[in-house]
Specification:
Length: 242
């Protein structure tokens, strides 16, 4: 049983993590926005400097329009979910996962990642959308970091009894057993120069605050290497309320 002193401390920690999650999501979005802005700037430069005539200019402008569309995709849905972080609401999990994919579309295309999706409709959970979006985005970012060029990213949703199961897997090098048990510990990271070691720790706290579970399986054997994260979120209470 928690002491009277522990309860306020836990509440303060939960509130701090809820405030931190949108910030972490914003950092990931900023990286993708910067990539699209750089491409857009290059296309505008080429359209101004080209000597190929009107057709060449129009081609660059069409490509620039594609980049502005990409920017809109990156920021629109994620921002909608991020604003919903304060209270749990019925949320379409497919729309949430698709929003996370849009955040990382630039990396997926740049690394020529094969994206395998299996996202059946109709799965709705009562969640704080911005927080769960941060979890999904963080798992995708980790998978993409682990993947070589032309690797494979699997994203699947399943209904199991009264739970939704989201699986995010990659065929990267895998995580050795010697460190797998530390993956969800605060400040533990294998990315010394760029990692904070907080992403997966926050993800675990967020999922558990939704009465869910998060776990992983990983293999480092050559030819069979890869990592699979699974998130389980309860659906029962929402179904009763419909």
């Amino acid at each position: 049983m928690r002491s009277k002193e522990q309860v306020p401390q836990d509440m303060a920690r939960d509130e701090a993590e809820r405030r931190t999650a949108p910030g972490l999501l914003a950092l990931e979005m900023m990286h993708e926005v910067r990539n699209s802005l750089e491409a857009l700037n290059n296309l505008l430069y080429l359209s101004l400097e080209t000597t190929g005539g009107p057709e060449e200019v129009r081609r660059y402008i069409r490509l620039a329009q594609e980049q502005t569309s990409t920017l809109n995709d990156i920021v629109s849905s994620p921002l909608k979910f991020a604003r919903s972080s304060r209270s749990a609401k019925p949320t379409c999990l497919v729309a949430l996962v698709e929003a996370a994919i849009r955040i990382h579309r630039g990396v997926i295309e740049a690394k020529k990642i094969r994206l395998v999706k299996d996202l059946p409709g109709g799965l709705v959970a009562e969640v704080r959308g911005g927080e769960i979006l941060q979890v999904v985005s963080n798992l995708m970012a980790n998978a993409l970091d682990a993947l070589p060029s032309a690797g494979t990213l699997h994203v699947r949703l399943r209904k199991r009894a009264d739970e939704a199961h989201l699986l995010i897997g990659d065929n990267g090098n895998g995580i050795p057993k010697s460190i797998a048990s530390q993956i969800f510990e605060p400040f533990f990271t294998t990315k010394e120069e760029v990692g904070t070691g907080l992403g997966l720790a926050f993800s675990k706290r967020i999922v558990e605050s939704h009465r869910g579970r998060i776990g992983l399986r990983s293999n480092v054997r050559p030819g069979r290497s890869g990592t699979l994260f699974k998130i389980a979120l309860p659906l029962r209470e929402l179904h009763r309320g419909i």
